[in-house]
Amino acid sequence: MATPLNKRFSSAKERTGQWVFSQEIPTDIVVAVGEANFPLHKFMLVAKSNYIRKLIIESKEADLTRINLSNIPGGPEMFEKAAKFCYGVNFEITVHNVAALRCAAEFLQMTDKYCENNLAGRTEDFLSQVALSSLSGAVVVLKSCEALLPLAEDLLIVQRCIDVATAKACYEANFPCRTPPNWWTEELSIIDIEFFSRIIAAMKKRGAKALTIASALITYTERSLRDLVRDHSAGNGTKSSDAQSTNSQVRYQQRELLESIVSLMPSEKAAFPINFLCCLLRSAIFLKASTSCKNELEKRVSAILEHVSVDDLLVLSFTYDGERLFDLESVRKIISGFVEKEKSMAVFSGSGDFRESCSCSPAMHRVAKTVGTYLGEIATSGELSISKFNGIANLVPKGSRKVDDDLYRAIDIYLKAHPNLDEIEREKICSSMDPLKLSYEARVHASQNKRLPVQIVLHALYYDQLKLRSGLDNDRSTPDAAATRNQLQADVSLIKENEALRSELTRMKLYISDMQKGNNQAGTGSSSKSGTSGHKKHTFFSSMSKTFGKLNPFKHGSKDTSNIDDDVAAMDGTKPRRRRFSIS
Q1: Rounded to two decimals, what is the model's pTM?
Q2: What is the rounded distance in angstroms from the CA atom of residue 214 to the CA atom of residue 266?
Q3: What fold does the segment set 12-131 form as a domain?
Q4: pLDDT tens figures, 66-95
Q5: Is the pLDDT of residue 536 over 80?
Q6: How far is CA 462 from CA 238, 446, 457, 458, in A?
Q7: For a tag site, which of 75, 321, 347, 422 has the least CB within 10 Å?
Q8: 514 CB contacts (<8 Å, ≥6 apart)?
Q9: Cis bond before residue 26 (omega within 30° of 0)
């Protein structure tokens, strides 16, 4: 009995020595498979393998002692089992090795045509009777075929596995026999995306429901892209070092995988939960997926935006480390697409004013509130410009907000996080908010907020005064915003008119003063008389100035300016004329 004294003998020789070298007949050929060497007998191999027989017959060497079979499917492990079969040694065929054995048998031409009950027939029987009798078996065999292409495809092993897996998955989706009911999606998630795509396409042809396809895609995505698509409830503060440290090759493979998954999605937009779509879209942005891939995901999120939460939008907005804003273009497209969808629905519903109908829809109200809260969450970012802030805030129709408290909170947070804004910039950031639609508490806060522009503070103060004066502040109820806005505009015009009146009176005082100086310079009378006369005129002018200074059209709450008399006319002895100073 030979012993493995030479180090060049591989471990394969040691293993096969237990069943080969026990023979009294010495070996006469060495089969090399990769780094493994198998000392065997020619007559045992030739009896079962037509391929080896041809090699020996067609060899130019008189006595062939070594052949190389490194390209055999399955490598050394499968050749060892094929050699055992040639020697009549028992070994186990399983779902994990049956495909490789079938391919190795085909490579070695160990078919029933060459010898009855050969290895190819044995593996075919196991495939049909055992491996392909269940979904789990078919999936495992299909997984093993990934390393056996294209031979496994040529032998129809792949197609048979796909057909069985498709039929079993559709049956389990409709009539689950195990718990949890979606266990079959876990089974399918282990295979390559190419085989998975073929199963999904076959399920669609069989009429599988959109939710069934979506369930399989969600499970597959969460397993194959677990570093990118994970628990979205973690928000924008969860870090993912794996996602940041992946090299370009891994990133390329992930991008290809993601685009393939998106292409498999059923046409029904509402088949997927919105949080899953948001995670998928963030991954697409991070991986720099194709424009068509991102557009498809944006349309799907936009179609069901009324179900979105603030956390879902934050998933789209921040990088995986939560330190930096992504490009907000996707968020803008999503909101814009939703608004356009609502407008289209309002038009086709036959509403008279589609803008008002769109703004009053419950879905639009929910989205408007979510967007306001979302702006408050991202307002602290130094990368958020005023144009981007207003660009998102103004996408939602102003009529869809019952109150602007959420938007006011977002503006206040932005002003606090950006203290170096000038007055004009602060007015720009506040332009998206309607001060008349703030609640009582928000108006009280705004009236004392030093960060707000003066114009917004005055609006808040005047609004409360108007309510108190009109008696509409019972139980802190909110009057009609449109009527209040009209009243405010009318009162603002009166204020401007009052300011014009004051300017006119000031000019008159200056005119009288100039006349007085001219009279003093032209006077040639005695100094005492002139002094007495000058003193009297100065006293009269001073009293008139005080009288004009006390004029206030809004004193005691009156807005009537028709009773202001031109007392200056009394200086000329003419009849006073009723006059109203205004600038049209």
Answers
A1: 0.72
A2: 7
A3: Potassium Channel Kv1.1; Chain A (3.30.710)
A4: 999 999 999 999 999 999 999 988 899 999
A5: no
A6: 45, 12, 9, 6
A7: 422
A8: none
A9: no
